[in-house]
Amino acid sequence: MKRIIMWSILALATEKTLSQTHTETFTACGKSYTVVCSREIDNSIKVGIRKASFDTIKHEYPIVTDDLDLFAQTFKENFLTFLGNDSSTCSDNEKRNFFLSYGRKLFLNYVAANTLDSISPLAGTLRIKKDINIYLKEDAQTEYTTSYEKYKIQKVQIEIKEGFIENIKAYILINGKTYYFSNNYAIGFSSITNYENFNRVRLYEMFSNPFSKPGNALIYYYIKLNNLIEYDYNLEVDRRDYSPKNIKIVLNGGEAVTLHKETTKKLFEAKIFTDFVGLKEDKPNGLVQIEVNKRININTVQHQSRKSFYWIFKSYGALQYIAPSISISKLEEHNRQLSLGDLDSVRFNPGLTDTSRFKKSIHRYSTPLDLYKYQSFSAGLDCNILFFSNRNLKFNFYVNAGARLGISPVSDSLTTIGNQNAIKKTGFTRNYSINTLQFYPEVILTFLPEERFNFSISNKFLYLKPYANDMQVVSYAPKDNSILFAKKGSWLNIFEMLMALQVNPDSKLFGRVRFNSDWNNFNINFAQIQVGYSTFILGKK
User: Fold this and answer.
1) Domain assignment of residue 82, given as a range
2) Mapped to the 3 state alphabet, what secondary structure does 239-251 carry?
3) 411 shares a domain with 341
4) How many domains does the chain have?
């Protein structure tokens, strides 16, 4: 069973799914042509061109790129090769502009078709304007002024993720030279208020920044987002988040692209972990742990930091999202239940334990950490309180709070008390579950060096309160586990390091280390060393 789980992780995480085939018909040089694009197993795009959909004579070529201009240029060259002598019937305008323009359109349509199915709703249409006014100030000036003329927008790259424009880079031609304008922090892209505030968002030129000062003989530039892009969002019943799915877009000035929401199949992602420590049958940490959570954007607004803090974090936000979550663990054969301790044996041999604080009607005990360790199910809600980000230092910092309901299965070995307080086991056991409520603040530091890999460190201060009439909650003395103290609940500390690796567009591999301990006594602890993978629970692509 253990080997099957490990092999499943490797197989599912490295699985590659072939994309859908996209077919189009277009007219050029007075004739009709059919073009077919399909994703190959080596991740290349195979493009096939023929004179008609039924023609067996065709020209095929592979290309490995996600660059719009390179795809279009390659299409133009191959289409002219396919035409051969027939290219003499094409006009000069077709040779210069149409083939490139159609190649760009083909790539955008292929990308859209490649990521959609019949249940992928329309999000909206994003348009890039053709030209733009710029704002500038010279060395001796203290205020920006608006340019009288408009300048050509050559190209715009946009990365949209989780309701934000995470990155945007605009190429503007100013007096014969290309200047690059980009954002300093993520821009909200999910609500009507976000779109209304585009006029407040500034994109600064590469050598400019919000706190540039005169004195170095430079000209400083910025542009406003509302002068660069337009987003015509689509309305649907009960839709309040108008952002598209995560996507990278490259468009020339004057071009537009239709954006879609995520497919239904990809709405919910499960992370499945196996615990190396739990692989030993005498260890109860959990052989398999399944976690499902869903981020729901609340306040997709970030603010630029003040000058005194700008060096450490570029932007900050509050109440960015909530995330409902479910966790199921301990699916192994052995050690499914927590064996409760015998409180009567402590009463009859108390040592230094003050038994007067224990309820006389209760005969079993457990620590909050043990209940947390044997937790088989939990569900709750995380809420972001504060968010800080520094793109140059490649980190995001979250301050969150959350609450959860936990369920821990326990086993009570029934006993009798005989003469001289002799405790005897009856051979019968009672199995039931204990419910706990958990409240916690949490801090998470996530490093984002590149798109395929990220690393996070987090710490959670969790207060766990069991609700059971037939069990006493206890804790141990810091230096002597034979001394017990009656408790109503306890603070736990959960420290975690998590590494995520994107192995293909639909799968991630994870490595995770957790150190769980009693906040008042770190000698009472247990560790988890886990590997895992992610999968979409409503089906694959």
Assistant:
1) 19-114
2) CCCCCCCCEEEEE
3) yes
4) 3
